[in-house]
Amino acid sequence: MKIKSKILIIAGSDSSGGAGIQADIKTVTSLGSYAMTAITAVTSQNTTGVSSIVSIPAKDISKQIEFTSNDIRPDAIKIGMLHSPPVINSVINSLNKIKIRKIILDPVMVAKGGAKLIDKKSIQILKNTLIKKVSLITPNIPEAEILSNTKILTIEDMILAANKLLSLGVKNILVKGGHLQSKLVTDIFLNKNEIVKFHSKRYNTKNTHGTGCTLSSAIATFYSCGKTLKKSCEMAINYVNHAISSGPNFGKGHGPINHLNTFTIKKKIKWKML
Questions:
Q1: Is residue 111 part of a domain?
Q2: Most buried of 79, 94, 185, 260 (most Cβ within 10 A)?
Q3: What is residue 71's predicted lDDT score, i.e. its pLDDT?
Q4: Residue 49 region by backbone torsions, left for phi larger than 0, else alpha for psi between -120 and 50, else beta
Q5: Of 31-40, 165-174, 256-265, where does mean pLDDT reach its minimum?
Q6: Residue 18: what are its φ and ψ, rounded to 5°?
Q7: Contact indicator for 86, 56 with CB cutoff of 8 Å
Q8: Distance between CA 237 and CA 251 in Å, rounded?
Q9: In this structure, what DSSP letter does residue 264 have?
Q10: What is the pLDDT of residue 188?
Q11: What is the CATH number for 196?
């Protein structure tokens, strides 16, 4: 398979492999692109929760971003967990230097098990600066509520919150509707020119660890290959739905999804001992 594009992922590590950098790499690779990383934090976690978070020094995060990009220029960037003001500011400074146009931001704030991954000051920097610099943000409902100061109980509330974020300078938004109590899952793509609703089947499973990371990385990958943002969102949602429906059922808590759902092995591989 020929590599389609190059993606730089700026995010935290998940030791269980279901979310974070690990999920991002699996997603980008399974969709045929080349993944590079700048790790912002190292977490000790599993499907039941987060035990600890160790921050990577801001200067080392910048060094990862700039040193990597100066050699292998990314076609797109996906940003995930940014948990402190120094980390966010270092990422912003590096983005200003490397000048990549296609950037997807997943504003990670809370882990699937409920652990907070970001502080209040960091949220303010995200709102005041970073969300204006990226091509698309992909908040779930709790994240959209925090960013827009809006309680979301309906699809209409999702649109209201998204419009508030547009007024803050966001260019494009995909509000993920998985937290709404409804038969179907409705995700809403919105900018100043259009509102598009994507309806998906709701799967009766607790194994959805890393869906947000996976979705944003898939969007970045499709977008880097020349698809429009709207089409990239549609294709990424479809990829995630297949990953949920074919999940491996690992762990005692919120288990991972199947990032390899794009692969079909048609013949047996014979191993030869050397």
A1: yes
A2: 79
A3: 98
A4: left
A5: 256-265
A6: -85, -30
A7: no
A8: 24
A9: -
A10: 98
A11: 3.40.1190.20
Total structural domains within the chain: 1
CA 202 to CA 204: how far, in whole Å?
Answer: 7
**pLDDT bracket for residue 161 (50, 70, 90):** very high
Quick one: DSSP state of residue 212?
H
Q: What is the mean pLDDT of the chain?
A: 92
260 in a domain, yes or no?
no
Pairwise CA distance, residues 25 & 36, whole Å: 8
Joined tokens for residue 176? 């993920």
Q: Using an 8 Å Cβ cutoff, are 157 and 238 in contact?
A: no
DSSP states along 147-186: HHT----SHHHHHHHHHHHHHTT-S-EEEB-TTS-SSEEE
At residue 1, does pLDDT exceed 80?
Answer: no
Domain residues for the domain of 37 are 6-245
Q: What average pLDDT does the segment 164-188 reach?
A: 94
Q: Are 12 and 40 in contact (CB under 8 A)?
A: yes
- What amino acid positions are annotated as catalytic residues? 176, 208, 210-213
Distance CA 148, CA 89 (A): 21
Q: Could you read off the pLDDT of 17-74 as tens digits, one per residue?
A: 999 999 999 999 999 999 999 999 999 999 998 899 899 999 999 999 999 999 999 9
Let me know if residue 212 belongs to a domain. Answer: yes
